[in-house]
Amino acid sequence: MKKIVILTGAGMSAESGISTFRDSGGLWEQHRVEDVATIEGYIRNPKLVLDFYNQRRRQLLTVKPCRGHELVAELEKNFDVTVVTQNVDDLHERAGSTKVIHLHGELMKATSSNNPNDPRQIVTLDADHVDIHIGDKAADGSQLRPFIVWFGEAVPEIERAAEETSKADVFVVIGTSLNVYPAAGLIQFAPPEAPIYLIDPKDVPWNSVHRFRHIKKGATEGMEELITLLNP
Ligand code: APR
Asked: Are 138 and 226 members of one domain?
């Protein structure tokens, strides 16, 4: 089976009703990144950050995967698919994708403030336990925090993602402005002979890579076109 690695960003979930970060009206227009998405912001005002992610978690429970998520999952019938996502939602998993690497963490998980990447500290949140409040404790007794990789923190999954990308027969990028590293750098690990497809309704400033086919459509329509190209 051919191996496909698919790097997704916020544009993948836009058609599920979750706003992107840098489009007009995006999350970063409504919030200062430094206040809600950095480790310094969390230390400075943990309640503000906990509330920001509580709101996003509550919204996630009201939306569902879009057809694009389902088409990504259906690719597994004919290909060995690994999804590497910058998204913290669980929509790829809910659509049926079985191999998902979350580079920036997972909204439906919480962890320790002292040892955020210690697997023994990670707990799963659900509809019965949506919010994290000041005073909620992790197993190690420290304040429970979102299992999210904030700006300024390590991206532990990048090594595994690079390893997977280096073995791809086909590399696909869906719905990311490629503004944030190391995620945006994954493209460099794609083998030289692997075709690269970009699905995004807008142009993306790709200064380093010129050998990609741009499917200038949204995630769902773009996936429909990609499937015809992959299964001629
Ligand atoms: N289908 C596909 N792509 C879309 C759609 C759509 N319906 N709508 C918008 N897009 C594209 C935009 O053109 C843009 O290129 O999705 C991309 C969204 O870019 P960003 O908002 O920058 O999101 P992303 O690239 O995922 O951000 C990366 O930045 O803030 C951090 O951790 C956060 O994971 C996030 C990272």
From this structure: no
Nearest atom, ligand 1, residue 149 CA: 32
88 & 164 share domain: yes
CB under 8 Å to 85, separation ≥6 — which residues? 7, 8, 9, 12, 92, 100, 101, 102, 103
- 148-172 burial: b if 16+ Cβ within 10 Å, else e: bbbeeeebebbeebeebbeebbbbb
Q: What is the pLDDT of residue 207?
A: 61
Question: How sure is the predictor about 205, in pLDDT bands with cuts at 50, 70 and 90?
Answer: confident
How many separate domains does the chain show? 2
Range of the domain at 169: 1-18+65-104+155-232
> Which residue, judged by its Cα, is nearest atom 8 of ligand 1?
11
Among candidate residues 104, 133, 210, 214, the one labeled active-site is 104
Same structural domain, 51 and 128: yes
- Over pLDDT 90: what percentage of the chain? 90
Residue 53 shares a structural domain with residue 159: no
How far, in Å, is the centroid of ligand 1 from the Cα of 35? 20
120 Cα: distance to centroid of ligand 1 (angstroms): 31
Average pLDDT taken over every residue of the chain: 95
In this structure, are 131 and 164 located in the same domain?
no
Query: Rounded to the nearest whole angstrom, what is the distance from the C-alpha of residue 118 to the centroid of ligand 1?
Result: 29
Active site residue 69: no
CATH for 86: 3.40.50.1220
State if residue 73 touches ligand 1 by the CB under 6 angstroms criterion. Answer: no
Note the pLDDT tens digit of each residue in 37-81: 999 999 999 999 999 999 999 999 999 999 999 999 999 999 999
